[in-house]
Amino acid sequence: MKDIIKKLDLTEYIESFQELFSRKKSIILEGDINLHFKLIEELSKFDINAPKEVANLDNSLVYIQKQGILKLDDIYEFTKIIRYFLYLKRFNFEGKLKEWIDKIIIPSDILKLDDYFDSKGNLKEGVDEDYDNIQNAIYKNKDLIRQALYKVINSSKLRPYLVDSQVHLVNDQEAILVRGGFNHVIKATVVHRSNSGFFYVVPHNISELKQRRSDLINKQEEVLLKFCKQISSMFEKHLMFLKFINKEFDRVDHYQARLFFAKANDRNFLLPSRNNSCKLVEFRHPALHGAKPITIDFTKSVIMITGVNAGGKTMMLKSILSAVLLSKYLLPYNAHKSSQIGSFKNILAVLDDPQSVKNDISTFAGRMVEFSTLFSKKNAIVGVDEIELGTDSDEAASLFKVIIEELIKKDIKIIITTHHKRLAALLASNSDVELVAALYDEKNQRPTYEFLQGTIGKSYAFETASRYGIPHNIIKLAKKVYGEDKDKLNELIERSSELEREYKQKIEKLDKELEDTQRIKKSLKEQKENLDELVYSEKSKLHKEYKDAREEAKKAIKAKISKEGHRHLNVAHTKASSIKTQKITEIEELKVGDRVKYRTSKGVIVSIKGQQAFIENDSGMKMKVPLKDLSRSGNMPKPTIKPKTTVTVSKPETGHVKLDLHGQRVDEALENLDKFLSDALIAGFDEVLVYHGIGTGKLAAATKKYLDKHPKIRSYEDAHPSSGGFGAKVIKL
């Protein structure tokens, strides 16, 4: 979808439409397009407000299905949907619109939600007595704190240090602003410092009041949790209705967005017809500003657009396909109401040069690949820009004539732009082909951006070249050359082929030399790595021998109790410690995809984060290692069959290990979780248990997001209630 929208220059137009949705979604309106059109038409007769912004509730519905407890904010999002349908039910709709709205019957339990919340999503007074009492106590507590602060402010001792006589809210705390030296007259805690060097302080004498407020807030959270449990339990009973109403809300949101979009610039809805005939009348492409309107009859199977360069041929092609696509998804656009648009299952655009060095494919070969897919399509409309691109014009004319005629038999509509006069001439006699010429103003030597059906247009290459600054003597000479014998062209082609063969031979020679250089470089690098390993091996051997000798010396000293021996032993230890063997390393710029070596393990860098790198070694294991410990390795793993190795890992009798993330910050918790999973994989565990708690849900959401992306996790699910329930995850590795 995104690809065809981009090719047709509709990206900005579609994005401006999507901004009218109350929540992000696809432009596709599923279901019967004729019914949707009828409902939109009936809805347009009423002046209805657009729905307010609503969150995506798919995850909330899954949470309800798993007997989870929703937050107050999530419950309010459902309430906004219910309120909007209650608002719609106030209108005196008729016809299909009335039938649809009448079918939406809201259960009485869910109707009560409208009385629970105010317009800002806060619980109304009277919904819960305990909540109201705590809320009043919090308000009184705030007043007491404010009064205590004003009492401090009015103190004669503190007045010389006061910057102003106001109570400031800093970091969610009531504070006063004072100058330096205040601690001689008042005991207080500094909570912030102003840009002018003054201090925001909270006096110690109101700490008890603040503690009381903190206790009240905790109690309030307990009451809200109890309330959310009750609502979540009720939602579980009405889960099917909530799924239904959530889907219907998206439907009405689609309708409203389309209506507001149509009204914004006097756009029309054009319902696709079933006979696949197209006739555009005064169509203006959304990407163009102040463009001439296009009118074209597309009742035949093929439209072949020829004529002047830069005369609007490609935009004509894009305009036809754009009108078909916008009508397919019932999006309004600027065109006369008398326009007719066909209904097509597939909309394809062959516009770009498919040449790719990476895939070793030429322009013409790429075009053939794209054309080959068309023979398996049905009920399709295809736009092909510059059909002659990439090959000999005479040969291509015969080939494309046959291809186009075969596609016509498959009931595929095709729009073609071309400078290919031979192909246009071959198809001119076909009754299923409509010829369209882009017109040129010869007097003023410029395109008119107008089109004439039923004729082949001239490309006006010489006139266009002259208009863009090519000297007249060169144009005159070019016209003379154009009429000379074709043998010169064949001679040029032959010479070009010879030069191409010489070029290929030189490329092959250079590639061979480059391959030899790379092989020598890899060999030298391997030798260097082997020498490094030898140095480390010898160092380890020396340290072991020294350690053994030192242990023997200790035994001898202990037996003889010789102070002189101890002294000599300490001297020997100092000298041995001073021995340094340093690995020779090069400072290398490593990136994702490079093959590297870490100690005795070799692999490929998967990702880099700061000074840490994630690598996947040749055995398939992923490791997190310091970037500085990696060196580049050009050696690929040998394609030999490795002998089977049996590794025995002792596991706990319970069959799993545990990790507790309670009280940790998200970044800290994810780092610990990553290390824990790596250790579990290395140890051979196939199932682990992770506690993340419920709390605000932030850590739980981050944990699930991390687990979804981890490549070594087969699945995970909420733990059994006895093992933590929704506050824990059982992870299968």
From TrEMBL:
Q: Mind listing the GO molecular function terms for this protein? A: endonuclease activity
Q: Which key words are in the record?
A: ATP-binding, Coiled coil, DNA-binding, Endonuclease, Hydrolase, Nuclease, Nucleotide-binding, RNA-binding, rRNA-binding
Instruction: Give the Pfam families listed for this entry.
Output: MutS_V, Smr
Q: Return the EC number.
A: 3.1.-.-, 3.6.4.-
- Smr domain span: 659-733
PROSITE patterns xrefs: SMR
Q: Which SUPFAM superfamilies match?
A: P-loop containing nucleoside triphosphate hydrolases (SSF52540), SMR domain-like (SSF160443)
Query: What is the recorded function of this protein according to its Swiss-Prot or TrEMBL entry?
Result: Endonuclease that is involved in the suppression of homologous recombination and thus may have a key role in the control of bacterial genetic diversity. Acts as a ribosome collision sensor, splitting the ribosome into its 2 subunits. Detects stalled/collided 70S ribosomes which it binds and splits by an ATP-hydrolysis driven conformational change. Acts upstream of the ribosome quality control system (RQC), a ribosome-associated complex that mediates the extraction of incompletely synthesized nascent chains from stalled ribosomes and their subsequent degradation. Probably generates substrates for RQC.
Q: What is this protein called?
A: Endonuclease MutS2
What is the scientific name of the source organism? Malaciobacter canalis
